[in-house]
Amino acid sequence: MNKFSRIFVSLMSVAALVCSAGAFYKANAVTPTTKVELMAAGQPVDLTYAAEKALPAVVHIKFVQNSKMQTVTVESPFDFFDPFGFFGNPGGRQQQQRQVPTQKKTATGSGVIISADGYIVTNNHVVAGADELTVTLNDNREFSARIIGTDETTDLALIKIDGKNLPTLPVGDSDRVKVGEWVIAVGNPFGLNSTVTAGIISAKARTLGANNVESFIQTDAAINAGNSGGALVNVQGELIGINAMLYSQTGSYAGYGFAIPTTIMNKVVADLKEYGTVQRALLGIRGNDVRKYLDSEKEKGNEIDLGTNDGVYVAEVDKESAAEEAGVKEGDAIIAIDGKNVTKFAELTEVMASKRPGDKVTLTYLRDKKKQTATVTLKNAQGNTKIVKQADLDVLGGNFREVTEAQKKQLGISYGLEVLKVDAGALKDKGISKGFIIQQVNDVPMKTIEDLQNVVREASTSKEPVLIIKGVWPTGKKGYFAVEVGQGN
Question: Which residues carry out catalysis?
Answer without folding.
Answer: 125, 155, 228
